[in-house]
Write a structure and sequence with these properties.
Elements (H helix, E strand, L loop, with lengths): L3 E2 L23 E2 L31 E3 L11 H5 L6 E10 L8 E8 L2 E7 L8 E6 L4 E4 L1 E3 L7 H4 L4 H4 L3 E6 L10 H4 L7 H9 L3 H11 L4 E4 L1 E2 H9 L8 H16 L4 E5 L10 H14 L2 E5 L7 H15 L3 E3 L12 H14 L4 E5 L4 E5 L14 H5 L2 H13 L7 H5 L4 E5 L13 H8 L3 H12 L4 E5 L3 H8 L4 E3 L18 H16 L5 H8 L1 H7 L15 E4 L20 E6 L2 E5 L2 E2 L15
Parallel strand pairs: 4-7, 4-8, 9-10, 10-11, 12-13, 13-14, 14-15, 15-16, 16-20
Antiparallel strand pairs: 1-2, 3-7, 4-5, 5-6, 8-21, 17-19, 18-19, 21-22, 22-23, 23-24
Helix pairs in contact: 7-8, 8-9, 9-10, 10-11, 15-16
């Protein structure tokens, strides 16, 4: 066991931690045990960037309850008493930020099994009652973070550890934006190869929404998983990729699919209105789906129809959906994209404030970056993907000419992300063909210039050559808007990213995949003081849990599930960049999911205690 020296953190007046100067907060400094901590296995953590000094791994000594320094030893005879309830873990002396927004306090947290059983001021709980005592003096103890905008729908099947998420402090991955792997039928999946036993089995098991997440839990996941049902999937289930309004019978099917999904554990229904087939959905259709969700106990959440030129109109549509359906409304990754639209940000916040004042339950989430990430198809008119014929259409000279004319004229009323970011601000990050991966990190303007063609031609050629939708990063937002939006009381935080292992990643990604939460805590809370620590934690935890109906998550509170992160606020930071994104964040010392340690002393344990968390409408 390593030698450990505890330093008491200095505290600012008024009961809040002093983060303006990182040196004021001294963490417990311990030499890491072999393998990254007791019982842990090393994680593939990359080193610091070349311009950063090597950082000492923080840890807090884990003491057996029968060691003299752990406090009063438990009496063996007492432990054998059937009425004696020992703690599994006792976190001692941490600065507890409980997730509610209340000021921090120095205290102890007792855990038994998968639940928090006691939270008391420092020194009240008897260390002799605990199997393990963890000295977390000088560290922040908070609820594990709930990522309301997770994208790990299928990636967790390949590797359930979610390393990029847990090293940010995430303990629950909430998925479902626009589409989900279930429920499925032939209209969703197309024909199933009978020789593919996995696909054949899933065609039956995933015909219901919960089948997908039940299999994911059984496969072993480090984080908890929950999801909305994708509105695009619901639409495909009833009518495929058709670009038209549903018939009355099809709309009845869609309502029934939403209701059944919420009763099977979905948190609600989630639309994505810039992506086909969601882009084909009318407002009345969305009201019907939101109404079905609300009646079953779910909410309506949306990637709204525009985040640029028609941002205000898109918010109006979301407000109308909420008012007409009675469903609580959440907006994914609120932003004002495109230089000419930056001034719309304040108007968008005011519009949401006005709707809330009028009684419409609407709020939003965001990620803390000035760049967005989606596919290259977001630079082409949505109709080119109708009936699932994107790549066939790209082979048709007449259709390509129509696309070029529509882009050139700016007609069609759709959102062109390559225009919003400009081709110079549009970076290629995700290609499926090995022969094309050398283009990852290239700007679209440079690709077009190298080929001496207009950027829309370069984009269509790349989509066709890669036979994919091509992942992109678009630099289109304003830093002042990001900083100011962080402070809004109805904002929550989500990464809009899936799970990654940096040692096996073969394509680039947005740094938000690795850095969303440490960027907020390190940059905006500690370094800039743009947001109070307690408020930032609330927006990562209890605000999300309450919004989606996960009633025993998101707080450090007796009786709640033991999803807990222990942070060294002096060291919390993102290390990922846009050109080198696959770098694990720093500053998470310990992380517990359902009472099981998945990070100890800064190292992954490899445990997979995550569960499928069902929404309040589950029957």
């Amino acid at each position: 066991m390593s030698e450990c020296v505890s330093h008491r953190s200095r505290l600012a007046r008024g009961g809040r931690l002093a983060f303006a100067i990182p040196a004021l907060l001294l963490a417990v400094s311990c030499a890491p045990s072999p393998g990254g901590g007791p019982t842990s296995t090393p994680s593939p953590t990359p080193g610091p960037p070349p311009d950063a000094p090597a950082a000492e791994t923080p840890s807090a000594e884990i003491l057996r309850a029968d060691t003299p320094t752990a406090g009063q030893p438990a009496d063996d005879a007492l432990r054998e008493d059937p009425d004696y309830d020992a703690y599994d873990f006792l976190l001692v002396g941490g600065s507890i930020v409980d997730g509610t927004g209340n000021g921090w306090f120095r205290g102890d947290v007792a855990i038994r099994g998968d639940r928090i059983v006691a939270v008391e001021p420092f020194g009240v709980l008897d260390p002799g009652r605990s199997e393990e005592v963890v000295d977390v003096s000088g560290l922040v103890v908070a609820p594990g973070f709930l990522d309301i905008n997770g994208q790990s729908d299928m990636s967790l099947f390949g590797d359930g550890r979610a390393l990029n998420k847990i090293f940010q402090g995430v303990t629950t991955e909430i998925m479902g934006e626009n589409s989900t792997p279930a429920p499925r039928n032939g209209r969703v999946t197309g024909p199933v190869d009978p020789s593919d036993t996995t696909a054949t089995r899933r065609a039956e098991a995933w015909a219901r929404f919960g089948g997908w997440l039940e299999e994911l839990e059984a496969s072993g996941v480090t984080v908890n998983v929950a999801s909305f049902v994708g509105a695009a999937t619901v639409r495909q289930y009833a009518m495929g990729m058709a670009d038209r309004d549903p018939t009355p019978a099809e709309l009845d099917t869609m309502r029934a699919v939403v209701r059944r999904s919420v009763e099977d554990g979905a948190l609600g229904v989630a639309s994505g209105l810039i992506y086909p087939p969601g882009a084909f959905s009318s407002t009345p259709e969305l009201i019907a789906l939101a109404e079905a969700s609300a009646a079953a106990g779910g909410i309506y959440i949306s990637h709204i129809r525009s985040e640029s030129d028609r941002l205000l109109e898109a918010i109006d549509e979301a407000v109308r959906i909420g008012a007409a359906s009675g469903a609580p409304v959440e907006l994914y990754h609120l932003k004002a994209a495109g230089v000419e639209n930056w001034a719309l940000a304040e108007a968008s916040w005011a519009k949401i404030d006005s709707a809330r004042a009028a009684g419409v339950d609407i709020s939003a989430s965001m990620y803390p970056y000035t760049a967005a990430s989606t596919s290259l198809t977001a630079c082409l008119p949505p109709w080119i993907q109708a009936d699932g014929r994107l790549h066939e259409n790209l082979d048709d000279p007449d259709i390509r000419a129509r696309v070029l004319a529509e882009i050139d004229s700016g007609s069609g009323g759709w959102e062109n992300w390559c225009d919003l970011a400009t081709p110079a601000g549009s970076m290629i990050v995700g290609l499926s063909q090995d022969s094309l991966k050398y283009l990852q990190g290239t700007r679209l303007a440079d690709l077009a210039a190298a080929r001496a063609v207009p950027w829309p031609v370069a984009a269509m050629d790349l989509l066709r050559a890669d036979s994919s939708r091509v992942g992109m990063v678009f630099f289109a937002m304003d830093e002042d808007n990001v900083r100011n939006q962080l402070r809004l009381p109805w904002i929550k935080f989500g990464s809009d990213s899936g799970s990654w292992d940096p040692s096996t990643a073969r394509s680039m990604t947005h740094p938000r995949s690795y850095g969303t939460y440490p960027r907020i805590l390190g940059r905006y809370v500690r370094d800039e003081g743009a947001l109070e620590l307690e408020e930032a934690i609330r927006k990562m935890t209890s605000a999300v849990a309450a919004r989606v109906g996960l009633r025993d998550r998101g707080q450090v509170r007796a009786g709640f599930m033991a999803d807990i992160v222990v942070l060294d606020m002096a060291r919390v930071r993102e290390t990922a960049t846009f050109t080198d994104p696959h770098r694990l964040a720093e500053g998470v010392v310990h992380l517990l999911v359902n009472g099981r340690p998945v990070i100890l002393n800064g190292g992954s344990t490899g445990l997979v205690p995550g569960r499928f968390l069902r929404g309040p409408g589950n029957r």
